[in-house]
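User: Can you recover a sequence for this backbone? Please restate the input before giving your answer.

Assistant: Of course. Working from this structure:
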C-alpha cells in the first residue's frame, strides 16, 4: 500500500509516518528529512537548499522529485511507501503519479491531516528531535523523558529545527496554502482523498488514519 500524508507544517505527518513504519513495515519517504540529511552531510545540493529551507520556502520541484526518484529506484518496500511532505506542488503530484506508474505501483490513499493554524504554531514551537534517531518530541504533548535520554535510542542530543521560528513558520504556512493545498482538490477529484481530524491526541489520530486505510 502506498500513501501520502498531506498536511500543513506541524500537522503530525512525521509522527504518524513513524508509527506506520513500526506497525506496518512501510517505508517513510520524507523529503524534509532527506533535505536536512543533505545539509548535515554538506553535499553541494544541501548547501544550495539551506537558506531556502530556513526561510520556509519550497525547494525546487526538480530537486525533490530527483530525491524521491532515487529512493524509489534504490529501496524496495514490501509494506509500501509513506510519502511524508511530498508531493507539495501539482508538478510534484504529476511526477509521483508517473514514477509509481513506471514501477507498476498504485497510489492507494491520500490522507489529509486537518489542524488549525493556532495548534500548528503551538506544536511547532514546542518541538524537538533526537539528533541520533530522529524521534520527535514535544515540550507539552510528548516531553523528553526526565532522565534526558531519548525513549527510542537512549541518545541525549536533542535539536530544534532552524525553520521552527515564528517568521519561517509564517512563510511555511503561506507556502502550504498557496502551493500545496490545491492538491486537496486534485486528489479529491481522483477519488483518493480521505480527510482526518489531526487535532486529537497522537493515538486518536493514528486510529483515524488506521480506519481510513482499512
Ligand atoms: P518538512 O520537514 O516536510 O516540514 P513541514 O511540512 O513543515 O512539516 P513538519 O515536519 O514541520 O511537521 P509534521 O507534519 O511532520 O509534524 P510532526 O510530526 O513533526 O519540510 C521542511 C522544509 O523542507 C520545507 O519548508 C521546504 O523548504 C523543504 N521541503 C520538504 N519537502 C519539500 C517538497 N516536497 N517540495 C519542496 N520543498 C520541500 O509534529 C509536530 C510537533 O507536534 C511535534 O513536536 C510532535 O511531537 C507534535 N505532535 C504531533 N502529533 C500531535 C498530536 N496529535 N497532538 C499533539 N502534538 C502532536
Ligand atoms: Mg515532518
Amino acid at each position: 500500500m502506498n500513501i501520502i500524508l498531506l498536511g500543513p507544517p506541524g500537522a503530525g505527518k512525521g509522527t504518524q509516518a513513524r508509527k506506520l513504519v513500526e506497525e506496518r513495515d512501510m517505508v517513510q519517504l520524507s523529503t524534509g528529512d532527506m533535505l536536512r540529511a543533505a545539509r548535515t552531510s554538506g553535499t553541494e545540493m544541501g548547501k544550495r537548499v539551506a537558506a531556502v529551507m530556513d526561510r520556509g520556502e519550497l525547494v525546487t520541484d526538480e530537486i525533490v522529485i530527483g530525491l524521491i526518484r532515487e529512493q524509489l529506484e534504490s529501496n524496495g518496500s514490501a509494506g509500501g511507501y509513506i510519502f511524508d511532505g511530498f508531493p507539495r506542488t501539482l508538478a510534484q503530484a504529476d511526477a509521483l503519479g508517473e514514477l509509481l506508474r513506471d514501477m507498476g505501483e498504485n497510489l492507494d490513499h491520500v490522507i489529509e491531516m486537518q489542524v488549525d493554524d493556532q495548534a500548528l504554531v503551538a506544536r511547532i514551537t514546542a518541538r524537538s528531535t533526537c539528533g541520533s534517531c530522529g524521534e520527535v518530541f514535544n515540550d507539552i504533548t510528548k516531553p523528553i523523558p526526565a532522565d534526558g535520554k531519548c525513549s527510542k535510542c537512549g541518545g541525549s542530543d536533542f535539536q530544534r529545527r532552524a525553520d521552527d521560528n515564528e517568521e519561517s513558520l509564517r512563510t511555511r504556512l503561506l507556502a502550504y496554502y498557496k502551493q500545496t493545498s490545491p492538491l486537496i482538490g486534485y486528489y479529491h477529484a481522483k477519488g483518493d482523498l480521505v480527510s482526518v481530524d489531526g487535532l486529537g491526541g497522537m493515538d486518536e489520530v493514528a486510529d483515524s488514519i488506521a480506519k481510513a486505510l482499512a
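That completes the design. DSSP finds nine helices and eight strands in the chain.
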